C-alpha cells in the first residue's frame, strides 16, 4: 500500500472513501484503511488493555468492516462506524476469554510474550505509566476519554460510538480527567 494518505484526514473524506470502497473501488478502500488504522489500533489497545492481542483484534475489525462495506450508507461518519465495529470486536474477545476454560501448566503465551518485550526503548516507561493510569479508570470513563482525548473524536461522534447521549459522554470524560489527576496526585506527581 502506498502512503499517500495524510496523517490526519477529515471525516468527510474518509466517509467518501468508505462509500467508494463499498462500490468496489479498491484504491478508495486502501485509503480508507490507511487513514483509519492508527485510530483503530489505539482504540483497540486501550479498550482491550491487551497490546499483545491488538494486531489480531485490528485485523478482525477490518475483516468485519470490509465485509460490511457494501452495506455502509454513510449516515454516520465512516470512522465512527469503524470504531463501533472495533468496540464490538473487543467485546466479543472479552466474552470469549471469559467463557474459555483456563489452560494449566507453565507460563501462558501472553506472559511469555510480555517478558520478551524490549524494556529499554525510548518512551517505554511513559507508555506503561499511561496504560496503567487508563486501565485504572472504569471502562466507561476510559472509553470516553480515549475516544475524545487520545483519538480526537468530537463528542457527538464519540457518543455515537458508545451509544450514549453526548451529555453522558462529556460527564464521563470530565470524571475520567478527575480520576487521572487524583491518580497522579496519589503517585506524587510534581
Automatic annotation (TrEMBL):
Keywords of the record, alphabetical order, are: Sigma factor, Transcription, Transcription regulation
Q: Which residues form the signal peptide?
A: none
Sorted alphabetically, which SUPFAM superfamilies does this protein's record hold? Sigma2 domain of RNA polymerase sigma factors, Sigma3 and sigma4 domains of RNA polymerase sigma factors
Start and end of every RNA polymerase sigma-70 region domain?
37-98
Residue ranges annotated for the RNA polymerase sigma factor 70 region 4 type domain, each copy included: 129-180
Family under the similarity heading: Belongs to the sigma-70 factor family. ECF subfamily.
The segment annotated Disordered runs over: 101-122
Annotated protein name in UniProt: Sigma-70 family RNA polymerase sigma factor
- Kindly give the Pfam families that the UniProt entry links to this protein: Sigma70_r2, Sigma70_r4_2
Q: Which InterPro entries match?
A: RNA_pol_sigma-70-like, RNA_pol_sigma-70_dom, RNA_pol_sigma70_r2, RNA_pol_sigma70_r4_t2, RNA_pol_sigma_r2, RNA_pol_sigma_r3/r4-like, WH-like_DNA-bd_sf
Amino acid at each position: 500500500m502506498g502512503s499517500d494518505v495524510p496523517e490526519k484526514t477529515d471525516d468527510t473524506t474518509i466517509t467518501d472513501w468508505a462509500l467508494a470502497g463499498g462500490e468496489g473501488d479498491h484504491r478508495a478502500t486502501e485509503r480508507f484503511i490507511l487513514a483509519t488504522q492508527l485510530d483503530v489500533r489505539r482504540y483497540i489497545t486501550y479498550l482491550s488493555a491487551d497490546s499483545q492481542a491488538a494486531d489480531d483484534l485490528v485485523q478482525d475489525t477490518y475483516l468485519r468492516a470490509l465485509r460490511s462495506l457494501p452495506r455502509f450508507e454513510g449516515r454516520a461518519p465512516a470512522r465512527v462506524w469503524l470504531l463501533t465495529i472495533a468496540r464490538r470486536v473487543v467485546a466479543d474477545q472479552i466474552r470469549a476469554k471469559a467463557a474459555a476454560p483456563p489452560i494449566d501448566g507453565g507460563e501462558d503465551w501472553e506472559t511469555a510474550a510480555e517478558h520478551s518485550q524490549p524494556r529499554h526503548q525510548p518512551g517505554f516507561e511513559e507508555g506503561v505509566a499511561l496504560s496503567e493510569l487508563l486501565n485504572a479508570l472504569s471502562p466507561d470513563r476510559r472509553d470516553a476519554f480515549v475516544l475524545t482525548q487520545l483519538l480526537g473524536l468530537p463528542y457527538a461522534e464519540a457518543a455515537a460510538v458508545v451509544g450514549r447521549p453526548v451529555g453522558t459522554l462529556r460527564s464521563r470524560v470530565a470524571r475520567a480527567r478527575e480520576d487521572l489527576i487524583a491518580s497522579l496526585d496519589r503517585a506524587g506527581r510534581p
